[in-house]
Fold each of these.
Amino acid sequence: MNHRSAPPRRRAAWVAGAVAVATALAGGVAMSTSAQAAGDTLQEAAADRGLYFGTAITGSKLTDSTYETIANREFDMITAENAMKLDATEPQQGQFDFSRGDRIANWATQNGKQLRGHTLAWHSQQPGWMQNMEGSQLRQAMLNHVTQVATHYRGQIHSWDVVNEAFEDGGTGARRNSNLQRTGNDWIEAAFYAAREADPNAKLCYNDYNIDNWSWAKTQAAYNLVADFKSRGVPIDCIGLQSHFNPNSPYPDNYRTTLQSFADLGVDVQITELDIEGSGQQQADTYRRVVEDCLAVSRCDGITVWGVRDTDSWRSQGTPLLFDGNGNKKEAYHAVLDELNDGNTPDPTEDPTEDPTEDPTGDPTLPPGDCSADLTIVNSWGGGYQGEVTVTAGSSAISGWSVALAGGIDVNQLWNGTLSGSTVTNVSWNGNLGSGQSTSFGFIGNGSPPSAGSLACGS
Ligand code: G3I
């Protein structure tokens, strides 16, 4: 199935409004418009291109409002980062604990999101009792685990990572020597048959890392596994490329070839755990290329990034995600959004829902500029709060910026900027920003904190 043509196209309200105005101005004469749909969140922009955009979630962090707000606003596909793994769901043999997984599944359902299941059979994160098992006893226990967990979540899962990371690294293309592998070479297909029986409607994926570079032996080994399963009718629907990129495992130029080659075998392709170590333009460019590649392969279902903020990442020191530790959108975020919007990302200054010129409180007009501004609430207390605004230059360097504080912000004290009316401009030392560079100013506000989000920025 080609997902790119299937889903309904969603259009941001401002685009619909702009088209309606244009039509009215044309005196009702039918006119063709080249207006592009443009989403202003990742999930919206991805949906317009027939993709999902997901993230990995840790249930205990859902009480962190910055984390929860971003997760809910930006993503429409959720993977439990650890909560549906073997050690979490079957801590004692035959005693299943779905509390952590259900917490995430319930949050996803309540917020209208889909779920990827991760993972049913894996050599790692096995509970202690399983680590000590071998042979037919282990085979039976593994199949029972697959059946019980997939049955519990039956009907809720878009795709399951049925088997995770079964090949070894390096140039051999061999299976990883794990206790599961030692139960017999057919353990992978046995797991897929059990999963299909337990949840016939979930897509069943094989998921691995270092299968991104088409010329690597491990990629060829995974490819041969899928080809073999397809030729013998073993139930497999998708390949999950984890895509953890870093200097040892860089984004390969032939990534699109890899995606397309798997797709040509008749399986869907999912990018399941994307993170790209780095920063600034280089990181943003690589993210952009991954999105481009997925968009170019019609069977690429969607992209999941492996965490919300850099500080949530399993590799936090590599700052590999789309939001910084404060929840600010990074340059990489803007690159992904822009690519999903086919280069037509809406400028928030043109969005009536965000444009202070449309605000009945009469906030100032700013010329659209090559910068963006994002407000976060650092702290709040009865009667006041601390806000921080990150200003980021867009595709060109800027030599000054102005940010319009949206209606209702009553500043008590402000630093690293100059306040005039409701407009904050740079001070002498933080006006020059190279492309993608950021600076910030802070303030104490009176009253209740406003919602975090984009503010109008002009340069
Ligand atoms: O929750 C406990 C905490 O109570 C304890 O104090 C602490 C001490 O070590 O450990 C905490 O658990 C850690 C857990 O993450 C939650 O943070 C585990 O030790 C740690 O091993 C676990 O790491 C997870 C890793 O899988 C385990 O293999 C990462 O969060 C998770 O991102 C990572 O995800 C994997 C995918 O499942 C498969 N592909 C690779 C990917 C990255 O390794």
Note: The domain at 371-458 is CATH 2.60.40.290 (Immunoglobulin-like).
Amino acid sequence: MKFFIDTANLDQIKEAADLGILDGVTTNPSLMAKEGITGDKNILAHYKKICEIVEGDVSAEVIATDFSGMISEGKKLASLAENIVVKVPMTRDGVKAISYFTDHGINTNCTLVFSAGQAILAAKAGATYLSPFVGRVDDVTWDGIKLIEEIVSIYSIQGYITEILAASIRSPLHIVQAAKAGADVVTCPLSSILGLFNHPLTDIGLAKFLEDHKKAAK
Ligand code: G3P
């Protein structure tokens, strides 16, 4: 399973990249706004900076909601760097745009996916990645991980090659569950990635090893 970080914060992207386990980045308009990045020029420049830090795929989301707007924005984004993936919402125009980008060799990430039916449409359009929102499904008391399992099963039966990118990940447990469910990629905040390191027995064990080493050296 690939690890993507879900942020537009350059320091956090660098910190995750430094760990040596980062495969890519996803962003969305909310995450860009959180970093105070506004205006077309600044947004494009910020994506360029992210692509300079990370070799893997970087998802950059279109703001337009109509087909022709998505196409012109997506082309601009895709021309920034080879590893840009154009993120497109799961709408009628979005699916049409994904199909267009697929035909023109531009990688896509279909976002705001909440059902297996939507997952089928995105795969049919040739999306490179599909982003079901695990945490937001949990928020409404459905089961986000069950949705991942369902899509993994359908894609396997149908032989769809779209990669399932578990998004809206909120905890280290979500990461483990997404891996178990068969997600191809997980995108999560830095805190969830770092949370995977934690185990009290590791801390206790390391302290004991170092103590024993010190004693033996006396
Ligand atoms: O990749 C989509 C993700 O950023 C949404 O996460 O936590 O806002 O539901 P969240």
Note: DSSP finds eleven helices and eight strands in the chain.
